Amino acid sequence: MSDRTPAAQFFDAAIGLLQRVRDEEAVAVEAAGVLLADTVASGGRLFAFGAGHSSLAAQDVVYRAGGLALMNLLVVPGVVGVDVVPATLGSALERVEGLAGAVLDTSPVRAGDALVIVSLSGRNALPVEMALNARALGVKVIGVTSVAYTTETTSRHVSGTFLKDHCDLVLDSKIAVGDAELSLDTVPAPFAPASTVVTSALLQAVMATAAASLAERGIEPPLLRSGNIDGGHEWNGRIMDEYRDRIFYRR
C-alpha cells in the first residue's frame, strides 16, 4: 500500500498521462492543429461533438476565452452531458443506429468543414456513424479516443469498427479501459477517472497549434477574450461580427 494520499496518487497518474500524450501524440496534435488552421483559412467552419462525459472536453473548446471563436458544438439532443433525465438515457442513445445521420442532415455541417469527435471508447454506434457520415459529406474528422478500447473491447456498431477507423486524424488519450486510475483494497471498484483532464488538455493543445499556425500564415487567429477583462466584450463582438457566418452558438 502506498504511503501517498489518494489525491497525490491521482495527481501523479494524471501528470503521467499528460506527459505521455505530450510526447507520444505530438505529431498527431501538430497535424490536427494544422488541419483546423487549414479549414479556417479556406473558409470552413469548425465543430466539436462528444456524448456523455466525453462532451465535457468538446464543450470546453466552444465559446471559450482564449479559444477559437469558430469552434461550434454539434449538439445531439439527450446525449450532451448528464443534464438529461434519466441520465442513463444518454448512454442508451449512444447505441442507437441512424441517430448520427439524422443529426448531421439537420445540422449546418457541410463539405469543407472540420469536426472533432470525442469518444473515450469509440465503440458505440453514435460516434462511429458520426465519423462515417461526416466524411461522406466531405468533412475532415479528428477523433479523440482511447485506442486501448479497440483491442480490449468489441464494437457496438454493426460494422464491427471503432471511431478511430473512420477519422482523418486520431488523437490517442492513452486512457486505460474503464477510465479509473486508482484502486484500494478497501474500495470494491477502481475509481478516479482522468479522461476529462487528459482529453481537454489534448484539445487545448490542438487549439493552441491551430492559432499559431494561422498566425504563421499572416492570418489573425479568431480568438475570444475573457468577458471579465476590460475591453473583452468589445473584442469578442468584433470577432463575432467578422465571422458571424461561421458561428452558430449565437443563433
UniProtKB/TrEMBL annotation:
The family database entries (InterPro entries) matched by this protein are listed as: SIS_dom, SIS_dom_sf, SIS_GmhA/DiaA_subfam, UPF0309
User: Superkingdom of this entry's organism?
Assistant: Bacteria
Signal peptide start and end residues: none
SIS domain: which residues?
36-220
Pfam families, per database record: SIS_2
Q: Please name the HAMAP family in this protein's record.
A: UPF0309
Q: Which family does it belong to?
A: Belongs to the UPF0309 family.
What is the name of this protein? UPF0309 protein OHT53_22885
